[in-house]
Design a protein that fits this description.
286 residues, alpha/beta, Rossmann fold, 2 domains, 6-stranded mixed beta sheet, 11 helices, 10 strands, 20% strand, binds adenosine-5'-triphosphate, binds magnesium ion
Length: 286
């Protein structure tokens, strides 16, 4: 469990970046951290990882105040993937990069090999294991960061815009893997993203920052049902959510759920004609 209590933070004196932040990420949650560029998402997660410390307030991890922690003190509990993958690269090969954390933790060599092989496999990097990490594409570096975090089997993952630079298949595979980790192993996931389709598909709860303040928390369906505020927060409603609201269907975020709800909302005897519209009573439409 990660809790932020009355957090205030500024990089430079006089320019507040986070103001009066109160929030908690419970064990086993899948939370999307959202907000416009510069709203403070990365900064908040840096405080949760003890990369920086608040000017006032407390960050508690499993009940412990981390005011005097170094990031390494949290490495066992939280896997953190940086927004900028270049900041995270330490080793000379992809394999050694992923093995770095387990080696620091002094895991037995056989466990290291098993963890690294598995992490490389699930991130589609096995064939690149001898490559020099800095020469990878941006998307590959992102997956390398995720693999390095996975190799330590943390109970919590904080992932900062990891789907950037991935094609649709890579993005889908990555998100499905995280979903399975969350649902089957109970891994807590805090995902920063600007992709609202990912939010509606995968997040169980959203937390929205605007100008360094928490302005909303609730399910994706609740978020996308909010009106004008969404625009002010710099967020875009997914198309299926807009359609659902137009049809008066509340709480619907998925395409299949939308079709089911729409079919259920049709008058008795009406049927969809295959175009997605109710079949007309007066014969085929012209
Ligand atoms: N190292 C830094 N030194 C000074 N100011 C910073 C630093 N990092 C971020 N900022 C400022 O802090 C504010 C919050 O930045 P942050 O990176 O946390 O936002 P973000 O929500 O992650 O944005 P994005 O969606 O663009 O990644 C911004 O005004 C940014 O310019
Ligand atoms: Mg950021």
């Amino acid at each position: 469990m990660i809790e932020a209590k009355n957090i205030n933070f500024a990089y430079r004196r006089g320019i507040p970046v986070l103001t009066d932040i109160n929030c908690a990420i419970g064990d086993g949650e899948f939370v999307a951290l959202l907000g416009h560029n510069g709203s403070g998402k990365t900064t908040l997660t840096r405080l949760m990882m003890a990369l920086d410390h608040p000017r006032s307030g407390q960050i508690l991890v499993d009940g412990d105040d981390i005011a005097h922690y170094e990031p390494a003190d949290l490495a066992d509990k939280i896997g953190y993937v940086f927004q900028n993958p270049d900041l995270q690269i330490l080793a000379d090969t992809v394999y050694e990069e992923v093995a770095y954390g387990p080696r620091v933790k002094k895991l037995p060599e056989a466990n290291i090999r098993a963890n690294v092989d598995e992490a490389l496999r699930v991130m589609g990097l096995t064939d690149l294991k001898d490559y020099y990490p800095r020469l990878l594409s941006f998307g590959q570096k992102r997956r390398l960061g995720v693999a390095a975090a996975l190799a330590l089997n943390p109970r919590t993952l904080i992932l900062d815009e990891i789907t950037n630079g991935q094609d649709a298949a890579e993005q889908g595979a990555m998100m499905e893997y995280l979903k399975a980790l969350n649902e089957k192993k109970g891994t807590t996931i805090l995902l920063i993203t600007h992709d609202m389709d990912i939010v509606r598909r995968y997040a169980k709860r959203t937390l929205v920052l605007c100008d360094g303040r928490v302005v909303f928390t609730g399910t994706p369906a609740e978020l996308f049902a909010t009106g004008e505020a969404l625009k002010a927060w710099g967020l875009r409603r997914p198309v299926v959510s807009t359609l659902s609201l137009e049809f008066g269907l509340t709480g619907v975020t998925g395409c299949e759920a939308f079709c089911d709800a729409l079919a259920g909302a049709l008058p008795d005897g009406a049927a969809l004609d295959g175009t997605g519209f109710p079949a007309s009573k007066g014969g085929a439409a012209q």
